[in-house]
Write a structure and sequence with these properties.
- The complex is a heterotetramer, with 2 copies of chain A (about 325 residues) and 2 copies of chain B (about 375 residues).
- The radius of gyration of chain A is 19 Å and the shape is globular.
- With about 325 residues, chain A is of the alpha/beta class.
- In chain A, the strands form 3 sheets. In chain A, strands 3-2-4-5-7-6-12 form a 7-stranded mixed β-sheet, sandwiched between helices. A 5-stranded mixed β-sheet of chain A has the order 9-11-10-13-14, with helices on both faces.
- A 5-stranded parallel β-sheet of chain B has the order 3-4-5-9-8, sandwiched between helices.
- In chain B, α1 runs parallel beside α12 and α2 runs parallel beside α9.
- The N and C termini of chain B lie far apart (about 60 Å).
- Classes of the chains: A alpha/beta (about 325), B alpha/beta (about 375).
- Chains A and C meet through α4, α6 and α10 of A and α4, α6 and α10 of C.
- The structure holds thiamine diphosphate (2 copies) and magnesium ion (2 copies).
Chain lengths: ~325, ~375, ~325, ~375
């Protein structure tokens, strides 16, 4: 096989498998990742094929998982840590921001910290508290970490392998609500573009929509509706949140004059704030309206039956486009 | 491996031999040198009744989930005795910190089963008043509540309601967690703080053998109750499927706590008969034989045998109880539908005790935005239930 | 006494003492806060006067400190937790963002969480790793928390008491390098203004400098130098970081047309990003240049001997002013 | 309090009675049933020499701080025996995870004392190569490194260098932490992971009685080595002021680890004779009498007495050592001044293994900005030393 049609969940599984085949130093650690294959089955079958030494059902302690992964990375392993849900990364927060992020610089490059921390993130799955969080801004604010988010099966497949191959620690965000929502053809003989680039996923010239992870789909849908109304919106998938790659965004905004950033994280100090601040600096004279932000409200993620009111959706994106044009 | 210098290395948790048991799986009362118990027939029937209704509550909620009325349910099947026994050991003034699975304790504390459903239906994060019931909201982040429990117990000390000798005033805290949770830093820090403060808290670990798919015997090489040894307070293992033992041991530990003698760790050795939650598929990781083995130790069956064999309850009792359970089930089905969906604008309320101008403005903005749809769509308010 | 001249450290001590006198439910918890009076002596003498039950030398475990404080708050106490240094708040991060921040909303208001978490923050004291961090953005991004920073002894005295009286959890940031740098007169019979307001500390009309905590002084110094060069800069002390009070800032920017936000936290996703994004939305047509940001670089806080290169100083602020005027 | 049901409640850590000791404070060799040791006179002299030089190193660094050459120094005064003994028990292929106070272990591992100063002078965060010395950089966040140690030990298992029987290959990890650190979640999680993986790690807790101002006996009600009981692996308390005992017990525990028998907890019972760090003022919280009491147990004095009394070292030995120490002190003073201050632009280097375009741009911006001053100010580069 070279070309297979896969969901994002399957693509992640295939990407992990390939990374493990290619490098015996890649190990998988987490809660329930072994026998069960993870609560989302992303690691399905890996323990059977690679053994318990490489796919570890760890004790239930996130700081312990990341902290021991640090020790393994020091000895040349490349741990891929699964955090079961976004809301459960916080017990490991200290190890991530004070240790994982700092080992390389603390040691003046003598101790690299190749580690991938996979986090199923975002809402929209009708879950209980702590299962729908979007913690990316906190990690992107931390120097020493790299942060990426995939939005489709093909990216999921390649970006995960690239993140594992990277010698820096990477927070790898997976939009859990899209694990099974779409399928795409993956050609495993293809050569993927660089990991650290954002990408135009739908061209347009009236305004620029900027999303990542789960909101790329929302932006594309919004652009489709806008197109029917005669408004051509360009959609950019950021893909890499730290470092940001705003080159393509700036190029776009210089053409469109209008930009809307869309994410599920709280608006206040979410990625949109940084994108808006930078774009305004670099494209000051091109902007015909302020960069607008559509995101989760500045409230805790609400109970599932009202999550629609919290999440940015097509209508809120289009409303922001209207507001941008009204400036 | 018996090392001449450091002694034996334990390799797996010891078996059930060493646990406190007062009623065998066959329904025989056995005596225990330290935890013997005199119980009236009425008390025995109450225990049975509560376990029976709690099991129905659990089955009913599971069915509601299957019918799409709940997003999720965390079953307690098999853990009724541990919970009902512990719950009955509480005094009114005690306070409980549950996980997400303590439906049996909630029941004994008078929390309406319907309000337990809200969290799982997704209409709220816990619909009852923790203070009214001495029963905190469910905590989902594993282990976090165990620290809250230690802190609450420290507050009881400062309130002067520990060790006064006044049984109606002296209070203690019951902190629930699972076998898996015992690995969390927070749980171990709670042991530290409780030992340090000599706080009136009873740590109640239901070892149901599983943390989702991970079996406890792979994680801990010694019985969990022995963890307490490392922190300098007593630990005891009780047959978690024996409601009498759970009651007796918890009662003794709570008494100790209220008297100012500090914390205790109880390991209730039991088994999760169901799945972890309704989204879990335990056939991927455990053997049906194990479940069958544990069925023989059913917490309800042994009490029923005991009641019947000793003439402590007649057929009428069981028939009435069955009818009562049916009524409970029926009420849960009915009232679950009636749980109101939260209003979109409500998400901005009560984020803070003192609302901020910022959030009030965001709420107003959303109100305007939503009303723009209402104008288009007419007044058709959608109900939440199917 | 009604009027006393005090350093910020003494003012905080006096404020704490008064709060403890006025409300027996106020308790102090932390590492070394008792006998030693804290490594910065902010709690000096309190254990002697209020006893070990109200001023607790806790075990060395930040999650434990905050987690038990949650339990105490549930029973009606008002814990004031001291985190010894900014870099040591992270072990408590999970308890802060998942528990402290969410109890009130989770319980629909039935369980308020009055708690103050005091954090000596920021750099410039020549310290070793983890002792000079500025973690405010991460807390400000978390709904349910309130975040404030004091910049002078008088504010320190009053803001701390107001934070303790507040029924919401407050992250209270103290610019440690200014604990002893200035003294001010405190009139304890005065009635302070509201806690949730930012404040113009030096009027001007050419550009607006926005700081908080340690950078307010930097901004004032910059304004003094600029004044000599004939440029009149307005300086605003944000004081409250969450919620933000941008009213006075907007009013200022509408006059000046230029704004520079200054903080020690990393620029990327620091408070400046949010302030810039919002100001651009609200003052789009008044801005003659993009809102510029002067902050810590996007590197780990460096070793002490090179921290000057990292920290925003007077020159970097003035350079940003020049860049603003060059637009 | 002896509770009839739960047994006695310990109230304070037991005293020093139960610790492993091979050399008394008076310099007498004593025998121990499990940890007896044959040592050549040369080895004894090496231990003494190392402790003597390490003490000088510590005194010298403290003086450098007083003279403003270091921002801070964490003294090890009083802990020389625990560290030098443990350090000598290591094999070349072992790996050490220190706190910020393991100067004695660093010395034994061949880390140049001058490179230890960098961190405290503020020119770097640790100037040595961890891999070259099998000695990690100092970790300041309390407890964090103990998890790294457990993970590194898990990596050794996966590398196949545990339990092979080849003494030159089999490796283990030594994890340092303090009495205060034993309260941290991370440390307790490290116990869990090590026990779970049966990882080759020796947890070495120097109980120096203090965590800054907090005395351990207020925090733990039982001796710290007993913590291991709660996690199912052995714990042992050793006289931390006895270099022989520290050596013997650590050696045995490391051997056990290398052989695949899993973790051990060693509590080295000692005393911090100095302040916590040079910024600390211990007179605020502890009694001078305590310090005097511990002076009688000085780790160096007892070895000196033993060496002299048994004719194992002559005056020349002590005189040469003294001269060697003077030379070390002189070198430290000289070379500390020469430690180069980092260049401003260097802060952007090595944040990442693969530099980002973003950070490179920020660096370039700063370069331009700084060069604008250089233009004004001329080329006068400022040296870092006073
Ligand atoms: C911090 C954290 N990590 C992970 C999870 C996901 N999770 C929910 S329940 C569970 C297993 C808990 O096992 P145990 O403590 O034995 O309790 P049980 O469910 O068996 O009652 C896990 C891993 C969580 N809720 N919180
Ligand atoms: C997470 C964290 N919290 C607080 C501190 C501040 N701190 C530095 S050393 C110390 C005491 C440590 O005591 P102990 O573990 O006994 O080691 P010792 O210093 O006595 O060698 C504290 C509280 C820290 N470095 N890290
Ligand atoms: Mg369990
Ligand atoms: Mg100590």
């Amino acid at each position: 096989m070279t070309t297979t049609t896969m969901s994002m969940a399957k693509a992640l599984n295939a990407g992990l498998r390939r990374a493990m085949e290619e490098d015996p130093k890649v190990v998988v650690m987490g809660e329930d990742v072994g026998r069960l294959g993870g609560v989302f089955r992303i690691t399905d079958g890996l323990q059977k094929d690679f053994g318990e030494d490489r796919v570890m059902d760890t004790p239930l302690a996130e700081s312990g998982i990341v902290g021991t992964a640090v020790g393994m990375a020091m000895r040349g392993y490349r741990p891929v840590v699964e955090i079961q849900f976004d809301g459960f990364v916080y017990p490991a927060y200290d190890q991530i921001v004070c240790q994982v992020a700092k080992f390389h610089s603390r040691s003046q490059g003598r101790v690299p910290m190749p580690m991938v921390i996979r986090i199923p993130f975002g809402g929209g799955i009708g879950a209980v508290e702590h299962h729908s969080e979007s913690p990316e801004a906190q990690f992107a604010h931390t120097p020493g970490l790299k942060v990426v988010a995939c939005s489709n099966p093909v990216d999921a497949y390649w970006m995960l392998q690239q993140a594992i191959a990277c010698d820096d620690p990477v927070i790898f965000l997976e939009p859990k609500r899209h694990y099974h929502s779409t399928r795409a053809e993956i050609d495993d003989a293809a050569s993927p573009g660089p990991l650290w680039e954002s990408r135009v996923v739908r061209p347009g010239d009236a305004a620029t929509l900027i999303g990542y992870g789960p909101t790329v789909g929302t932006c594309v849908d919004a652009a489709a509706v806008a197109a029917e109304e005669g408004r051509s919106l360009e959609v950019i998938d950021l893909r890499t949140l730290s470092p940001l790659d705003l080159g393509p965004v700036e190029e776009s905004v210089r053409r469109t004059g209008r930009a809307i950033v869309v994410h599920e994280a709280h608006v206040n100090l979410g990625l949109g704030a940084e994108v808006a601040a930078r774009l305004t600096e670099t494209c000051f004279y091109s902007l015909e309206a302020p960069v607008l932000r559509v995101g989760g409200w500045d409230t805790p993620y609400p109970p599932a039956r009202v999550e629609e009111a919290y999440l940015p959706d097509l209508d809120r994106v289009l409303d922001a486009v209207d507001r941008s044009f009204a400036f | 491996m018996n090392d001449p210098v450091f002694g034996p290395t334990p390799t797996a948790p010891a078996d059930e031999g060493e646990l406190v048991q007062l009623l065998t799986p066959e329904g025989e009362r056995v005596h225990h040198p330290e935890f013997d118990l005199e119980l009236t027939p009425e008390m025995l029937r109450t225990f049975y009744r509560d376990m029976f209704l709690v099991r129905r509550l659990d089955v009913e909620a599971t069915a509601l989930q299957r019918h799409g009325e709940l997003g999720l349910w965390a079953q307690l099947l098999g853990q009724e005795a541990a919970q009902v026994g512990a719950g009955h050991a509480l005094a009114r003034q005690d306070f409980v910190f549950p996980t997400y699975r303590e439906h049996g304790v909630a029941w004994v504390r008078g929390v309406d089963p319907v309000s337990l459903l809200g969290l799982f239906r997704g209409v709220d994060n816990g619909g009852w008043d923790p203070h009214a019931h001495g029963f905190n909201l469910y905590t989902i982040v594993i282990g976090a509540q165990v620290l809250h429990a230690a802190g609450y117990a420290m507050a009881l000390q400062r309130d002067g309601v520990v060790g006064t000798g006044d049984g109606d005033r002296d209070a203690a805290v019951l902190a629930h967690f699972g076998d898996g949770a015992s690995s969390q830093g927070d749980v171990n820090e709670a042991f530290i703080f409780a030992a340090w403060a000599n706080a009136p808290v009873v740590f109640f670990c239901q070892n149901n053998q599983w943390a989702i798919s991970e079996p406890i015997e792979k994680v801990s090489r010694i019985p969990l109750y022995q963890r307490a040894n490392g922190f300098g307070f007593p630990g005891v293992r009780v047959d978690g499927n024996d409601v009498l033992a759970s009651y007796a041991v918890t009662q003794a530990a709570l008494k100790r706590a209220r008297e100012g003698q500090g914390p205790t760790l109880i390991e209730a050795y039991t088994y999760r008969m169901g799945a972890h939650t309704t989204t879990d598929d335990p056939t991927r990781y455990r053997l049906m034989e194990d479940v069958e083995h544990w069925k023989l130790k059913d917490p309800l069956a042994r009490v029923e045998v005991h009641l019947r064999r000793n003439g402590l309850a007649d057929d009428d009792f069981f028939a009435e109880l069955s009818a009562e359970a049916d009524a409970l089930g029926e009420r849960m089905r009915r009232e679950c539908h009636l749980l109101p969906d939260p209003q979109p604008l409500s998400i901005f309320d009560r984020v803070y005790a003192e609302q901020t101008a910022e959030l009030a403005a965001q709420q107003a903005e959303v109100a305007t935005y939503l009303s723009s749809f209402a104008d288009h769509a007419g007044a058709g308010a959608e109900g939440g239930a199917a």
